[in-house]
């Protein structure tokens, strides 16, 4: 990579954390930074493609976290509705 390019790094930095090990906030924050770097358009094709692929994986990871959270909320609401169903009938 060109050393004069913003966000280029020197290639000797720490390896990125595997996407599957990232929490939601970590994946989201890295995705935001990835989009910013891609929008600058200062990288070569190969570097841009590698960053795009990482961004796609980050987006999928965020979607997985959100789907899991949605399922937990729906399960909690379902349990709450089942428990409250009998109480409403006795209130008149």
Automatic annotation (TrEMBL):
Its EC number is 3.1.11.6. SUPFAM superfamilies: XseB-like. GO terms for molecular function: exodeoxyribonuclease VII activity. GO terms for cellular component: cytosol; exodeoxyribonuclease VII complex. Its main location: cytoplasm. Keywords: Cytoplasm, Exonuclease, Hydrolase, Nuclease. Pfam families: Exonuc_VII_S. It is found in: Cytoplasm. One of its GO terms (biological process) is DNA catabolic process. InterPro entries: Exonuc_VII_S, Exonuc_VII_ssu_sf. Residues 1-21 are annotated as: Disordered. The keyword Nuclease applies. It catalyses: Exonucleolytic cleavage in either 5'- to 3'- or 3'- to 5'-direction to yield nucleoside 5'-phosphates. Signal peptide: none annotated. It comes from the Bacteria. Heterooligomer composed of large and small subunits. Belongs to the XseB family. Bidirectionally degrades single-stranded DNA into large acid-insoluble oligonucleotides, which are then degraded further into small acid-soluble oligonucleotides. PANTHER family: EXODEOXYRIBONUCLEASE 7 SMALL SUBUNIT. This is Exodeoxyribonuclease 7 small subunit. It comes from Corynebacterium freneyi DNF00450. The lineage of its organism: Bacteria, Bacillati, Actinomycetota, Actinomycetes, Mycobacteriales. The gene is xseB.
């Amino acid at each position: 990579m060109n050393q004069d390019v913003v966000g280029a790094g020197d290639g000797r930095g720490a390896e990125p954390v595997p996407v599957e090990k990232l929490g939601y906030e970590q994946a989201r924050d890295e995705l935001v930074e990835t989009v910013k770097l891609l929008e600058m358009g200062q990288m070569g094709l190969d570097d841009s493609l590698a960053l795009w692929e990482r961004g796609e994986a980050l987006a999928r990871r965020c979607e997985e976290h959100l789907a899991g959270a949605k399922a937990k909320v729906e399960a909690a609401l379902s349990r709450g509705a089942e428990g409250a169903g009998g109480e409403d009938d006795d209130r008149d």
